[in-house]
Design a protein that fits this description.
96 residues, mainly alpha, 2 domains, two-stranded antiparallel ribbon, 3 helices, 2 strands, coiled coil, GYF-like_dom_sf, GYF, GYF domain-containing protein
Length: 96
C-alpha cells in the first residue's frame, strides 16, 4: 500500500483476500507502528461483510482503548503474580 478504501473494497469483492490477510487502517500514507493492524476476519467482524474497510474513527478509538485497558490489566495481573511468588506458603513475605 497505501491503497484507498474503494480500491481495497473492489479487491475484496472480487475475492482476492483470505480472512487472515492483515490491514493497517491509517489516516496517512505512511506506516505508523501506533496504528492498529487488523486481519480481514477482524474487520468483517467489526464492520460487517458488506463494507469491512469502512472504519470509523470512533470504532478505531474504542478498540485502541480496549487494547490499552487489556494491556493494563495484564500488567497488573503479572505484578500480582510476582508479588504472590515473593511470599512463602504461610503468607509471609520472603526476603530476597
Amino acid at each position: 500500500g497505501p491503497f484507498d478504501e474503494p480500491q481495497v473494497q473492489s479487491w475484496f469483492a472480487a475475492g482476492f483476500f483470505s480472512s487472515d490477510v492483515k490491514f493497517q487502517i491509517s489516516e496517512s500514507d505512511h506506516f505508523d507502528p501506533e496504528d492498529l493492524i487488523f486481519t480481514l476476519g477482524e474487520l468483517v467482524e467489526l464492520n460487517g461483510r458488506t463494507l469491512p474497510f469502512y472504519f470509523s474513527v470512533d470504532a478505531q478509538n474504542e478498540r485502541k482503548d480496549q487494547e490499552d485497558l487489556l494491556n493494563s490489566l495484564l500488567q497488573e495481573v503479572e505484578s500480582l503474580r510476582v508479588s504472590n511468588n515473593e511470599r512463602d506458603s504461610n503468607g509471609r513475605e520472603v526476603d530476597g
